[in-house]
Amino acid sequence: MARVVNIHPDTPQQRLLVQAAEFIRDGAIVALPTDSCYALGCHLGDKNALDRIRQIRQMDERHHLTLMVRDLSEIATYARVDNAQYRLLKATTPGSYTFILEGSKELERRVLHPKRKTIGLRIPDHPVALALLEELGEPLLTCTLQLPDDEQPLTEGWEIQDRLEDQLELILDAGHCGTEPTTIIDLTGDSPELIRAGRGSLEPFGLD
Question: Is a pLDDT exceeding 80 seen at residue 208?
């Protein structure tokens, strides 16, 4: 049964962040707010939690997962980034973007796209998400909290609890944070490619 924690959206309580990080290290799936919409997250190295997230979302291994990180230095650890890509990332993060990048050797094959060896990476612009990542001290493996057949992501704590009470361990309820997912930009080619238009502006990439 999911534990619902009411956390302040702007100044999240430290004791709640400590508890949430402990839950994640112990194998929990957490629903957390971001600058676009709520996300499901788990420990990067937890295969069981990842399998459960894929089951909740009914995703196969070809669906890109997103590594949520604190800053650009972490992106460089988990993805291959050249100078041009780095400049784009620096200009647009933190923000409501997910970038498809080639994964580094730091990542296990099971979290990468099976053929392309790519992964989504993002730096969220939300106090709760950033504070949780800081407390955890490592990235979170995440995906949008949008259930199969739903037209929009879930965005209310009570609704997340009602729909997923037996499938999650923790819900960080910071109130409504929107229903528009991130803009997804593929940076693996010669020029940025729009995969999904979302909350993030296309202007920095010359795609609007």
Answer: no
